[in-house]
Design goal:
This protein is an alpha/beta fold and 132 residues long. The chain has five helices and four strands. A four-stranded parallel beta sheet has the order 1-2-3-4, with helices on both faces.
Length: 132
């Protein structure tokens, strides 16, 4: 049996400005993930403040990936962005990583049932590879 590595799309989440910027980003995402089981990493390191429209955009991205049986992981969130996700009650929907590289590599790992997997599914920040 051969396990094929999935292609992972990494997109830089821009600073969330007006509605037109959000719609343009979502269109770009839809064009990039028009495949079966898309794997997407959203690098949020330059996104700035994460407010209601920003959280809505993240949810729309996740929805588009899930329509195609895929997943979205977040990387580079600062503490205020993580707090915003918690305040809106959506932090458990995303696998959050410190870096985009860590998020990409997590798509290539075989799933295991363990206590660390349980903590990830609860939306807690995953540890960098060197700390494991």
């Amino acid at each position: 049996m051969t396990i094929r590595k999935r292609t992972v799309t990494v997109m830089q989440l821009p600073e969330i400005g007006n509605t037109k910027k959000r719609q343009a980003f979502l269109r770009d995402l839809q064009n990039c993930i028009d495949v079966d089981r898309p794997s997407v990493v959203l690098d949020c390191s330059c996104a700035g403040q994460l407010n209601r429209p920003g959280v809505h955009l993240l949810l729309c991205c996740l929805e588009e990936a899930m329509k195609r049986n895929g997943d979205v992981k977040l990387a580079g969130l600062d503490s205020s962005a993580e707090t915003a996700l918690e305040n809106f009650g959506v932090h458990r929907l995303f696998d959050i990583h410190d870096t985009a590289a860590g998020a990409v590599s997590s798509f290539h790992k075989l799933p295991t049932i363990s206590s660390s997997q349980t903590s990830r599914s609860l939306g807690r920040r995953t540890q960098p590879e060197s700390a494991a």
